[in-house]
Amino acid sequence: MSTSTRLVVYVSLVASAAIAVAKFLAYLATGNASMLSQTYYSLSDVGNQLLLLVGFRLSEAGPSRRYPFGRGKEQYVFAFVVTVLLFGVAGYASVREGYAALGTPFRAVDVRINYVVLGVALVFELYAFYKSYQAVQEEADEEGFEDLYGTFRRTKDGPLITAATENLVAIVGVVAAILGVFLTDVTGNTVYDAAASAVIGLLLMGFALALAWENRGLMVGEGVTRTERQALLEAIGDVAGVERVLDLRTMHLGPDSVLVASEIAFDPGLDTAGVEDAIDAVESAVRETVSEADRIYVEAESERVEREYPFGDDGGTVADEFDRGDHGR
Question: Residue 265 pairs with which residues in a beta bridge?
Fold first, then answer.
């Protein structure tokens, strides 16, 4: 877990906890449905950050007999639970409140407290988004992602992208709530307030579905990116004594932990000591190429063995992929 990811989560937690109470008090004072939806959102955000921190804590436990590869995937599990449970439930509750508010009579109240609370919330959310944007940009620079969308699609740091996307959705939600309160107060028509509540709920539900889909792949056992895979094949191929990569499989055990397993055909002329030296060189090349690789397994074949390993881009084998120099998946 990176320090920047932990900082983003803590900033979001403090901001959400501080404004959740203020939003609920504003709802009690004015009765605006959009303020209640905002309260649901902030409460779900508090639960979000707490569960992510629990995931961080559990994932830091090292390997054990029960968990021989450690518990790095705890972060993915808790990020998935957050998106499905908290944001899905909070989104549904917001849509329900918006629907229930349709057709309710307008009640003339002083809504200035709503503007104050939402204005403060917007400042907090903008700051939280700024910190998360910095962390995401740092992740993009480190991994070589082209843009923010590419980072969202390809990053293996589920908690970071969860917190960053949540902060962006929070800003949109606050703006929607401000518009709903303002239009209802000016026109005397509560449909605007109800619509703002529904929009906030739909944003939460859409956010939950998108992030649940992204975390699903990491939980199942997603490998390294195409760029990293290409770099691994090239680095292994450059090791003296390596004839052919017969199989290469990778899997993220956590944002900062990668398993790399390979089967390699070495030069038949190498003796036992030579093969051992070549294996050590392959392991070093893997670590230099993918710094997160902390579980590296190399199976040596002293002769060219023709086997079928269907993991090429076009349905071919890894060996075919390696031979033609097309190392990207």
Answer: 244, 301
The pLDDT tens digits of the residues spanning 176-205 come to 888 988 898 888 888 888 888 888 888 878
CA terminus-to-terminus distance, the chain: 27
Q: Report residue 180 CA to chain centroid gap.
A: 31
Distance CA 283, CA 7 (A): 33
Distance CA(3)–CA(31), nearest Å, equals: 40
Please, are residues 190 and 105 in contact by the beta-carbon 8 Å criterion? yes
Two tokens, residue 101:
């508010």
How far apart are the C-alpha atoms of 95 and 197, rounded to whole Å? 6
| CA–CA gap between residue 33 and residue 190 (Å, rounded) | 9
Correct CATH for 226-323 of 3.20.20.140, 1.10.760.10, 3.30.70.1350, 3.40.710.10: 3.30.70.1350
Give the number of residues written for the chain.
329
pTM of structure: 0.65
